[in-house]
Write a structure and sequence with these properties.
The structure is a single chain. With 400 residues, this protein is an alpha/beta fold. The protein folds into two domains: 174 residues, 3-Layer(aba) Sandwich (Rossmann fold); 209 residues, 3-Layer(aba) Sandwich (Rossmann fold). It is 34% helix and 24% strand. The strands form five sheets. Strands 12-11-8-13-16-17-18-19 form an eight-stranded mixed β-sheet, with helices on both faces. It has a five-stranded parallel β-sheet with strand order 2-1-3-4-5, sandwiched between helices. A hairpin with a 5-residue loop joins strand 6 and strand 7. The longest helix has 17 residues. The radius of gyration is 25 Å and the shape is elongated. The structure holds ligand PMT. Ligand PMT binds next to helix 10, helix 12 and strand 16.
Length: 400
């Protein structure tokens, strides 16, 4: 069950060309189990119909503060009290100005004033409007009052100008909803997570690598952020986009990953190494493409640095967690790695299976702790496994 499951979310839609993207937001929130109530302003209704939003949200769309039927059935105070989260997307300069100034002259501005729920605002407007002194100041003031903003993207806007003002991607807005609504069990913790493969060049066109997609490590990073941690993700080459709202360091080789993890982790509370770091690299990288040779080809390999083992030598107060990619004797091999690398825990997965481990969307793991305790996390999505891993680490290692 995801963070949004069972949550009551009020979505305010105001009058901008991006109002049509509210449909996608409603759909994503509902897919994750949220109950969505849309408040559509009069100017929002110039861009999108209440019928569309009502059909998608499966709840009546509220528009008019003075409508006797909707006020008796839904009521602005009831909406304000019921909300776990109030999200305004797209938010015009006008609604931002009204909220800052304490104006409550329509349903949306009144509900914002009446709610104690967190409010997330995703602005969307013409670049000059967004950069105007009034809007900048209004946003600063609202931030200082605890309102959260999802900054607009830069790009070509509907009005033809190029610059900031385009509504942030729907995925980013929904991620902010998850972040705001998740429990904050890792608040105040700094964590470094590694992900993906490393790539070791043989010559300008060939390399050594492995099948890691980054999905498991990216899930661990995203979930840690939602749980309130300050997260840095260090990742080898993957097809995945950088996760929102966190520092992501992209590296290629084991050596680059080593440097990045060492640089990012001295003051970390935890380092979780999920990356499939290459164990070997070419002893010498050929400067030009190696010619095909009928007689075969022998490649000299040198071991790469074992990042986790190095960290384990200078562990300090950091919690160190490894992942073990095993194909047999899982418990024995995983525990041996944990001991050799001086870890607090190791998360073992069976990479001989095709439904879990490398590349798949799901995983199934056993967590071995240095005190001998073992926890099993049954088959789940990698995000589900990430939730289980952090809950287990929090309960066992951070609470001490
Ligand atoms: O990315 P996905 O497609 O989602 O796949 C996820 C995964 C299968 C890669 C992941 O769940 C996983 O098992 N990661 C660990 C892969 C691995 O390298 O396992 P290992 O048993 O070889 O290494 C043990 C630990 O030492 C790991 O934490 C590894 O990051 C670390 N290590 C290994 C070699 C090295 N030179 N330096 C290291 O720090």
């Amino acid at each position: 069950m995801g963070v949004l499951s069972g949550k009551e979310i009020v979505l305010g839609v105001t009058g901008g060309i991006a109002a049509y993207k509210a449909c996608e937001i409603v759909r994503e929130l509902r897919t994750e189990g949220a109950n969505v109530h849309v408040i559509l302003t009069a100017s929002g209704a110039q861009f999108i119909t209440p019928l569309t939003l009502q059909t998608l949200s499966k709840n009546p769309v509220v528009m008019d503060l003075w409508n006797l039927i909707s006020e008796s059935e839904i009521g602005h105070i009831s909406l304000a009290q019921r909300a776990h989260l109030l999200l305004i997307a797209p938010a015009t300069g006008n609604i931002i100005g009204k909220i800052r100034s304490g104006i409550a002259d329509d349903m949306l501005s009144t509900v914002v004033m009446a709610t104690t729920a967190p409010v997330v605002i995703a602005p969307s407007m013409n670049t000059q409007m967004y950069e105007s002194a009034a809007v900048r100041e209004n946003i600063d003031v609202l931030r200082s009052r605890g309102f959260r903003f999802v900054e607009p993207d830069e790009g070509e806007l509907a009005c033809g100008t190029v610059g900031p003002g385009r509504l942030a991607p729907v995925g980013k807005i929904v991620e902010m909803a998850r972040i705001v609504l998740a429990e904050k069990i890792l608040q105040g913790k700094k964590v470094v997570v590694s992900a993906g493969p490393t790539v070791e060049s043989i010559d300008p066109v060939r390399f050594l690598s492995n099948r890691a997609s980054g999905k498991m490590g990216f899930s661990l990073a995203r979930v840690a952020l939602r749980f309130g941690a300050d997260v840095t993700l260090v990742t080898g080459p993957t097809a995945l986009e950088n996760p929102h709202f966190m520092k992501t360091v992209r590296v290629r080789t084991a050596e680059e990953m080593h440097k990045a993890v060492e640089r990012e982790s001295p003051d970390a509370d935890a380092v979780v190494m999920c990356a499939a770091v290459a164990d070997f690299r070419a002893a010498k990288v050929a400067p030009a493409k190696i010619k095909k040779n009928e007689g075969g080809w022998k490649l000299d390999l040198s071991p790469t640095v074992d990042i986790l083992e190095e960290l384990g030598r200078n562990k300090g107060r950091r919690v160190l967690v490894g992942f073990a990619a095993e194909t047999g004797d899982i418990a024995q091999n995983a525990v041996a790695k944990m001991r050799k690398k001086n870890l607090d825990a190791i998360v073992a997965n069976d990479v001989s299976r095709t439904d879990i481990g490398f590349e798949s969307d799901d995983n199934e793991v056993r967590i071995f702790f240095s005190d001998g305790e073992v926890r099993e996390l049954p088959l789940a999505t990698k995000e589900g496994i990430a939730v289980g891993v952090w809950l287990a680490l929090h309960g066992k290692l951070f609470a001490r």
